[in-house]
């Protein structure tokens, strides 16, 4: 008999090597499908840019305290276990909140890391998830930002943060002053990094007094100054956020904010500057961040200066909750925002084109809730800013919708925006424009707010459009792989079907006496 035939049936070659090779190839494809499902970049290009007519402020100062928690900045007596700790740890920022600024919590998203936080604040978009392949250090796809839309941005701080906004920007638009990476030493006092930033700002203004070219550049409209203060993050990692070192670093940041405001006001000699102070993320009690714990996602937002409203009395029901009661600011209105909303606020203040990748919502879009802009801007300006916000987000939806239409078979459009022969979104834009033309400011803001929410939902719909199909394909592929692998265990083709059945019966008979014996034992045990 031929060796290829055994017991009247061809022998099957169950090669373990072949199984391993097929398994390796399958899992490579499977892992790739995970990235295709969940780590596809949301960043697209080709959108038209929009901006508000005119600007309230000539320039903007953005100060980011890296790793600063909202409660440890604003609580009364935030460090009770530290002997002789002050009741108010940041008196200058506190005085701004109480007398001449607007404040609230900026809610971040996971991952609560420095790079994603800055992308949200300055780019108005949440972290490109495909950047996980780069360890959250750089972006695989260039994106727009407030800095790129400014006339010039003067940025000071960490070499881990500043370069990513210069990349992809117009050459010479974003200027950088950063210390060397070796200076980020966890064994040294990190406060020195923050004072280094302040020294560079002082040097810049001092040099401008003798440099006409630099002076002219500084006096342009739509100039942005960015101060990235890394010390708190470094100190929190090394000593934990409830330590004396972290407390002293908050005090140092407060001093730097005060000194920066003095430098700007003295150099320009006017009141045409808007100031925004915030943080990229918070920090847990053990000194880490990255997850979605509230200690990591709740960061402070304080805005003041030109174009920003002053303090407002609290509303009913109160804008405060248990988290902010220890602040001792319950008499003042707290206005929370999503982190990406800060980019929209900054663009509106200095009148730049909004970042084309921004999904931030201007806090003043909703007419039923006070925002951050000064009421003296007038309802018309607020209505037009809300309309710009709606058009900017809808433009991203339009581009993604067209891309999906061109590359997807049997594509089903997002019904709220594409339900009629004439797209609903175009009709909504015309309706908002009509409301503005007839001076119905509040109605137009409500219509813009509705369109913004629909556009954001549409973007999410398009971003996740293929996930159900991909999950189904991956699920059935994995089931198929398990069934195929099981053949190497069962080996049903090694012998004829009749012999398999006979062998199975014989095996069962071998265990039958054991079953009977076990049953008898159980019965006898129950009667005892």
TrEMBL record:
<keyword id="KW-0337">GPI-anchor biosynthesis</keyword>
<keyword id="KW-0256">Endoplasmic reticulum</keyword>
<dbReference type="InterPro" id="IPR002591">
    <property type="entry name" value="Phosphodiest/P_Trfase"/>
</dbReference>
<keyword id="KW-1133">Transmembrane helix</keyword>
<dbReference type="InterPro" id="IPR037671">
    <property type="entry name" value="PIGN_N"/>
</dbReference>
<dbReference type="GO" id="GO:0051377">
    <property type="term" value="F:mannose-ethanolamine phosphotransferase activity"/>
</dbReference>
<dbReference type="Pfam" id="PF04987">
    <property type="entry name" value="PigN"/>
</dbReference>
<feature type="transmembrane region" description="Helical">
    <location>
        <begin position="20"/>
        <end position="39"/>
    </location>
</feature>
<comment type="pathway">
    <text>Glycolipid biosynthesis; glycosylphosphatidylinositol-anchor biosynthesis.</text>
</comment>
<comment type="similarity">
    <text>Belongs to the PIGG/PIGN/PIGO family. PIGN subfamily.</text>
</comment>
<dbReference type="GO" id="GO:0005789">
    <property type="term" value="C:endoplasmic reticulum membrane"/>
</dbReference>
<dbReference type="GO" id="GO:0071555">
    <property type="term" value="P:cell wall organization"/>
</dbReference>
<keyword id="KW-0472">Membrane</keyword>
<feature type="domain" description="GPI ethanolamine phosphate transferase 1 C-terminal">
    <location>
        <begin position="458"/>
        <end position="512"/>
    </location>
</feature>
<comment type="function">
    <text>Ethanolamine phosphate transferase involved in glycosylphosphatidylinositol-anchor biosynthesis. Transfers ethanolamine phosphate to the first alpha-1,4-linked mannose of the glycosylphosphatidylinositol precursor of GPI-anchor.</text>
</comment>
<keyword id="KW-0961">Cell wall biogenesis/degradation</keyword>
<dbReference type="InterPro" id="IPR017850">
    <property type="entry name" value="Alkaline_phosphatase_core_sf"/>
</dbReference>
<keyword id="KW-0325">Glycoprotein</keyword>
<protein>
    <recommendedName>
        <fullName>GPI ethanolamine phosphate transferase 1</fullName>
        <ecNumber>2.-.-.-</ecNumber>
    </recommendedName>
</protein>
<keyword id="KW-0808">Transferase</keyword>
<dbReference type="InterPro" id="IPR007070">
    <property type="entry name" value="GPI_EtnP_transferase_1"/>
</dbReference>
<dbReference type="InterPro" id="IPR017852">
    <property type="entry name" value="GPI_EtnP_transferase_1_C"/>
</dbReference>
<dbReference type="Pfam" id="PF01663">
    <property type="entry name" value="Phosphodiest"/>
</dbReference>
<feature type="transmembrane region" description="Helical">
    <location>
        <begin position="469"/>
        <end position="490"/>
    </location>
</feature>
<keyword id="KW-0812">Transmembrane</keyword>
<dbReference type="GO" id="GO:0006506">
    <property type="term" value="P:GPI anchor biosynthetic process"/>
</dbReference>
């Amino acid at each position: 008999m031929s060796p290829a035939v055994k017991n009247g049936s061809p022998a099957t070659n169950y090669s373990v090597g072949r199984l391993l090779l097929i398994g390796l190839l399958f899992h490579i494809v499977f892992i790739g499908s995970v990235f295709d499902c969940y780590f596809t970049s949301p960043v697209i290009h080709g959108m038209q840019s929009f901006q508000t007519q005119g600007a309230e402020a000539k320039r903007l100062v953005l100060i980011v305290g890296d790793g600063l928690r909202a409660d440890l900045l604003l609580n009364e007596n935030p460090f009770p276990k530290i002997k002789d700790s002050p009741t108010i740890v940041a008196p200058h920022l506190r005085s701004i909140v109480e007398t001449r600024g607007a404040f609230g919590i900026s809610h971040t998203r996971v991952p609560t890391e420095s790079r994603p936080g800055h992308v949200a604040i300055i780019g108005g978009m949440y972290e490109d998830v495909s950047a996980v392949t780069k360890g959250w250090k750089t972006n695989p796809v260039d994106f727009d930002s407030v800095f790129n839309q400014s006339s010039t941005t003067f940025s000071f701080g960490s070499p881990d943060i500043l370069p990513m906004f210069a990349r992809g920007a117009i050459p010479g638009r974003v200027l950088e002053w950063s210390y060397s990476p070796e200076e980020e030493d966890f064994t040294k006092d990190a406060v020195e990094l923050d004072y280094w930033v302040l020294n560079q700002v002082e040097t810049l203004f001092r040099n401008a007094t003798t440099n006409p070219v630099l002076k002219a550049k500084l006096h342009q409209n739509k100039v942005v100054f960015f101060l990235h203060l890394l010390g708190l993050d470094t100190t929190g990692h090394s000593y934990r956020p409830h330590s004396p070192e972290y407390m002293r670093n908050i005090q140092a940041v407060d001093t730097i904010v005060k000194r920066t405001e003095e430098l700007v006001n003295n150099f320009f000699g006017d009141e045409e500057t808007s100031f925004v102070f915030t943080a990229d993320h918070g920090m847990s009690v053990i000194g880490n961040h990255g997850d979605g714990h509230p200690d990591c996602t709740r960061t402070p937002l304080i805005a003041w200066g030109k174009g920003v409203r002053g303090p407002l009395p609290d509303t009913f029901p109160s804008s405060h909750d248990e988290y902010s009661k220890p602040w001792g600011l319950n008499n003042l209105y707290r206005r929370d925002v999503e982190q990406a909303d800060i980019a929209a606020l900054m663009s509106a203040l200095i009148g730049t084109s909004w970042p084309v990748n921004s999904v931030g919502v201007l806090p003043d879009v909703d007419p039923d809730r006070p925002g951050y802009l000064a009421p003296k801007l007038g309802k018309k300006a607020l209505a037009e800013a809300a309309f710009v916000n709606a058009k900017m987000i809808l433009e991203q939806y339009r581009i993604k919708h067209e891309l999906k239409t061109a590359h997807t078979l049997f594509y089903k459009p997002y019904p709220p925006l594409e339900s009629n022969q004439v797209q609903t979104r175009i009709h909504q834009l015309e309706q908002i424009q009509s409301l503005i033309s007839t001076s119905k400011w509040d109605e137009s803001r409500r219509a813009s707010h509705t369109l913004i929410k629909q556009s954001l939902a549409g973007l999410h719909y398009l971003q996740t459009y293929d996930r159900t199909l991909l999950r189904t394909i991956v699920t059935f592929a994995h089931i198929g792989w398990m069934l195929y692998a099981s053949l190497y265990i069962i080996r049903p083709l090694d012998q004829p079907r009749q012999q398999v059945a006979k062998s199975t019966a014989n095996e069962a008979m071998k265990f039958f006496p054991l079953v009977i014996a076990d049953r008898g034992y159980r019965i006898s045990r129950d009667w005892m």
